Amino acid sequence: MRNEFLAIASVTIVSAAHAGGVGSTYTDATGDVFDSSLSNIDILEATFNNDSTNLYLSVSVNADVSATDWGKYLVFIDSTPSIGTFSGMNGNDPFNNPWNRRVGSPAGVDAFVGSWIDGDGTNLNYTFDGSDWTQNEVGTPDLSQAALGIVSWTFSLDSLGLSEGDTFYFDVATTGGSDNDPAIDLLSTDIIQPGWGFNSVSGLDLTYTVASSTPVPGIGGIAALAGLGLAGRRRR
Fold it and tell me: Would you say 223 and 10 are in contact if contact means Cβ atoms under 8 Å apart?
């Protein structure tokens, strides 16, 4: 009976350790940039995950970004189709994104993250109310795996206007450091952007659902469940 008690308790602990899911990973083609020297902004894949408070994003690119760190990262989110607005493909268009990048989507954008990893390494999170962008949060990218080409971020759900259970459309892009720069690589497409002086457009057709939190029993709950298993064994 002692062995069975330990087995029940161990199974419960393992289940608790894996609660919360493994996230969603989205892949992109290798080398889908117009210039092979831009491998530091050639997206390979991105992974979203979340808990009850935060959204986690990890992006992998095709170079050591601790050595070549000038690239900028953009996240576009469409969660409420009635709010997002699209007015044109040119840069300096406040309805497309607050960073004046030459990237737009006919679907409209409700939330935006712009991040740089050079210098102080920062991300800025914004939401759009139909007429103006509001900056809601300042964060710091995780560059602990930059030598492997991996950059990760933690965004509060509130800063992006998201809640548990929401499904949103999104895209991730890389670009340069100047106003009017286009997206050089978009996670959503393998089409090669023609160059720096062109517009870029996203269909915002990738989706992620913010998972609801899974209750995890505490030590008392684990002991109680294990005890029930043991009691059942004794009655039999």
Answer: no
